[in-house]
Write a structure and sequence with these properties.
alpha/beta, transferase, Rossmann fold, 9-stranded mixed beta sheet, globular
Length: 236
């Protein structure tokens, strides 16, 4: 299995996604666009594309983020989808999947930062790749926006703050607005980059720093690894 990551910022790193790929001895490659690394020319060089999050949006101009080319990423996503490659998008990555179909993205009803439950709906509980999450699983969040839906897309999970937490675009393509890859190191990055004392008094779904830093991320990481194993081995 050849896994390629698109990373937009050093502080939005792949966390448990990378841990999984390394534990499985998969071949790993990166496009660290924040370091001006190039995207793959096409989808021939990987079997799985994982598009990570970032503070950008899918229609961002290049003034604030000169290293970020959302149109190029959307073209690569569509090439991967058309080539029947596995594609997983996280946060911004999920929004880019939706945008790659020409349907843009949307603002979430609420800002979410921290760890809050997602609830699987009937479709989610029938999806063998995520059914092991159960009716409810506490996962990481760090977003303002959410992905849009194609006619074939199926919402599998929602949270109190966001109605589109997990979206299945096809059997090989999943968008996660939530972050099951969070680790203690990523938790420290969240606290470093966000004004949590101010935000936690203004927004109902923003946690305090101490709650984010002391949370045990292993349960969500384990759930993510099972999902990835099912997604990859079931479509090998």
């Amino acid at each position: 299995m050849r896994v390629h990551f698109i990373q937009h910022e050093d502080f939005e790193n792949p966390g448990a996604y990378l841990d999984w790929a390394l534990m499985r001895n998969y071949q790993v490659s990166f496009s660290k666009v924040h370091l001006f690394e190039a995207l793959p020319a096409n989808a021939d060089g990987f079997d799985m594309l994982i598009v990570l999050g970032g503070p950008q949006s899918p229609n961002e101009d290049r003034i604030n983020f000169p290293y970020y080319d959302p149109q190029a990423e959307q073209r690569l996503i569509q090439q991967a989808i058309n080539a029947n490659k596995i594609v997983v998008g996280i946060c911004l990555g999920a929004q880019l999947i939706g945008a790659s179909f020409g349907i843009g993205y949307s603002h979430s009803p609420h800002k979410e930062i921290g760890n809050f439950p997602i609830l699987l709906n009937e479709e989610g509980l029938k999806d063998d790749n995520i059914a092991h999450f159960g009716h409810s699983l506490t996962v990481g969040h760090w977003h303002n926006d959410m992905p849009n839906l194609t006619n074939d897309a199926v919402i599998l999970a929602a949270s109190q703050g966001c109605p589109r937490q997990i979206v299945r675009y096809s059997p090989l393509v999943y968008g996660f607005q939530c972050h099951l890859e969070f680790t203690q190191a990523i938790a420290q990055d969240i606290v470093h980059h966000e004004n949590l004392p101010k935000l936690s008094t203004e927004y109902p779904f923003v946690q305090k720093a101490e709650d984010i830093l002391t949370f045990d991320y292993q349960v969500m990481n384990n759930a993510l690894w099972v999902f990835l194993d099912k997604l990859t081995t079931g479509n090998a």
